[in-house]
Amino acid sequence: MATRRIKATINNHYVQPLKLRMGRKLVLTPNCSYNSVLYTQKHYALHASNQKIDLWAKFNTNTFDGIQLVAWLEDVDTNILGSAQCQFKVYYVNTANDWGQTLIHTVNGTASNGKWVASPSQTDLGSDNVIDGDRTLMIEAILSKWGRSYTKKIYLNHLGVYDSIVRLRNDIDFLDIIKADT
Q1: What is the CA radius of gyration of the chain?
Q2: Between 20 and 30 A from 113 (CA), which of 122, 167, 168, 174?
Q3: pTM
């Protein structure tokens, strides 16, 4: 008996090729136009619960003044998603009084490669809030996308090497005072 060979034409009104190695085959044909959408087992809809904020803060090593903040919105696959705006709020946390929070500075982020950045200086934070490990600060990032707000908070009390620089500077000042006394 002769064998017939059939060649399927791709995506026309009569033939809809399906991927045979997919676990779950669900085909939608909206408005009967035969434009198929194939969902796999790994498919997940873009939903607000699948999105989260990454927020980072570090000592501003470029100017040695203040902090640098960066935040972005990402999905579960760590793809950076776009957002409409970002606002950073910096709070002083009083650890002696039930961890009460006092707002000390608010700054809007500037878009940079899908991320939002801001660099509040030490004068913006106030002379009492020196980043030397003595006081605890809370950084809050609020991102907006499609009328929905996303929020993340981080706590910090020193940022890297700056704590060591301040301690060494205090030791040097102490040695200068001792030298002046002798």
Answers
A1: 28
A2: 122
A3: 0.63
Cα–Cα distances (Å) from 87 to 13, 30, 130, 142, 153, in that order, read 50, 40, 22, 5, 12
pLDDT at position 153 is: 94
Chain CA centroid to CA 8, Å: 47
Number of H helices, E strands in the chain: 2, 11
Buried-state track 42-53, b at ≥16 Cβ within 10 A, e below 16: eeeeeeeeebbb
Residue pair 149/89 in contact (Cβ under 8 Å)? The answer is: no
Q: Cα separation of 27 and 38, whole Å? A: 5
Task: Please choose, from the candidates 149, 140, 65, 154, the residue with its C-alpha nearest in 3D space to the C-alpha of residue 107.
Answer: 140
**Chain-centre distance for alpha carbon 157:** 20
Give the rounded distance of the alpha carbon of 107 from its chain centre. Answer: 16
Q: What is the mean pLDDT of residues 39-45?
A: 57
Whole-Å CA distances, 61 to 54, 79, 103 = 21, 28, 24
Position 64: which residue type?
F
pLDDT tens-digit map of 66-123? 889 999 988 877 778 888 899 999 998 887 878 888 999 999 999 988 899 999 988 8
